[in-house]
Amino acid sequence: MRYDHPYTTLVGRVLIAAIFLMSGLNKIADPQGTQQYMAAMGMTGATTLLYVGAVILEVGGALSVLLGYHARIGALVLLVFMIPATLVFHTNFGDPNQMIHFLKNLAMMGGVLFVAAHGPGQISLDAVAGLESAMEGSRITKYKSDSHAAAVATLANTLFSK
Q1: What is the tens place of the pLDDT at every residue in 1-15?
Q2: How many CB atoms lie within 10 A of CB 44?
Q3: How far is CA 81 from CA 112, 123, 133, in A?
Q4: pTM (2 decimals)?
Q5: What backbone phi and psi angles, to 5 degrees, belong to 4?
Q6: Containing H/E element for 8?
Q7: CA distances from 146 to 6, 70, 157 (A)
Q8: HSE-CB of 79 using CA atoms within 13 angstroms
Q9: Cβ contacts of 72-79, under 8 Å, gap ≥ 24
């Protein structure tokens, strides 16, 4: 039996996006410290470019997943970001803390792969916009009730109306 609850999918997206969004915002808050850490880890060339790229990928991907707007693409962007970040920053397996970070990153990759595979669900901007990616990969083919659609439409109108 399959369990597709729209609020469960929403909460899952919020939780997986939160760590990427916070990480990106922390990089914005301390650009010099972030770039110094990158250089200390061997990323001595084009550090500023890599820093800007990391911020764009993390914040952009996180917002995409969080809002459910082209969430599959946003999830894949986060996955592409995570692979080199994990291999560059968290492979000192002699340090138990780095091993935990490595495993945490693998779990995060699993979370974004799940979003990429199953889409953002019913409570998402993709669903409101009628984008195919909102329901593809899931048995859900239409809203279970109009109240979900109305709630998402109201949220979207509140966020994006001027």
Answers
A1: 456 688 999 999 999
A2: 9
A3: 11, 26, 21
A4: 0.78
A5: -115, 95
A6: helix 6-29
A7: 13, 22, 16
A8: 15
A9: 72/115, 72/116, 72/119, 72/120, 72/133, 72/136, 73/133, 74/115, 75/112, 75/113, 75/115, 75/116, 76/112, 76/116, 78/20, 78/108, 78/112, 79/109, 79/112, 79/113, 79/116
Count other Cβ atoms within 10 Å, centred on residue 68. 31
Position 132 confidence tier, pLDDT thresholds 50, 70, 90: low
Entry field: residues in the chain: 162
Q: Which residue has the tokens 């920053």?
A: 89
Give the pLDDT confidence of 9-61 residue by residue, as tens digits. 999 999 999 999 999 999 999 999 999 999 999 988 899 999 999 999 999 99
Which two three-digit tokens encode residue 46?
């084009």
Contact 4, 137 (CB under 8 A): no
